[in-house]
Design a protein that fits this description.
Helix content: 40-55%
CATH superfamily of the largest domain: NAD(P)-binding Rossmann-like Domain
Order of helices and strands: EHEEHEHEHEEHEEHEHEHHHHHH
Number of helices: 13
Number of domains: 2
CATH topology of the largest domain: Rossmann fold
Structural class: alpha/beta
Amino acid sequence: MATILVTGGSGFFGTLLIRQLLDDGHKVGSIDLLPNTIVHPHLRSVVGDIRNRADLDILFDDCRPDAVVHCAALLAHGSISDKELWSSNVDGTRELAEATAAAGVRKLVNLSSNCLWGQGFHRPVTEEDEPAPCELYGHSKWEAERILHARQNSFATTTIRSPTIIDEGRLGLLAILFEFIADGKRVWTVGKGDNRYQFIYAADLIDAIMRALGQDRSHIFGIGSDAVSTMRETFQHVIDASGSRSRLGTLPKLPAIAAMKLAHHLGISPLGPYHYRMIASSFVFDTSRIKAELGWQPTLTNREMLLRAYDYYQRNRREIAGRNGVSAHRQASAMGVIRILKWVS
């Protein structure tokens, strides 16, 4: 069994990944700004910052990992400044790359994002499509990819460009949608809701990472679910399956997006430039390369995984409301001005 170092190991996805690695018999080292909730004899967990070389060197020396999985990233949520986000995602990746090379580790899997693009596509997005981010988070993830690519003579990097990761416990902005459904409020689409926006089931992404750890060459892969339904169809599936009283409604596209831009400018909305640009757009990765080269296949559709996430929210709603000191995706985002829309729904 291998020893794997995971950055961002206390986050929503990092926690799921570490549990799977431990279940499979691996030893794991974890570094995160927040403490890890997992206690296991084969887990060495450090509360630290990937920008701090001393924190990294201690973990590399203690664990002597065979590979690194880089999940750590700050999101443009809450009170995080632009400077802090860029420093963590870019400077942190640079420090990690240097520490990985210095430790002689020959393999790194990097979790990237569909936020590398800020516009929709009328076709599947391939690994050859040039990234074009529209906001700082996307720019930081693109710069992180380039930092790791520049170290390809030191170690092999497999970058997996991921859409929104869904599983039980995924909250963040999704919790706003879930609250509308749980309270029987009208669920709104921007435009007709006929756009197709791909998700990825967390267990399927973990499977891809495990397969990538067996590779000795550098790769870039897009990943995501198959048979991507429209957003309208996906929302309706959750409403019907949960027995909610919610109905679907449509907001006119141009006025709605203009209102979202204004709300972001005024600092009263959790939705940033990526969200208001993509909320009525289609974005689906072409996953033929990762299927062919890793033998990977997705197991859940958008509708199935979103229903799982909603069921978790419904079962744990009271406890979720009291959470603090956890990562952004493990707590509900504040609605801001969207609460007015809920009142009139």
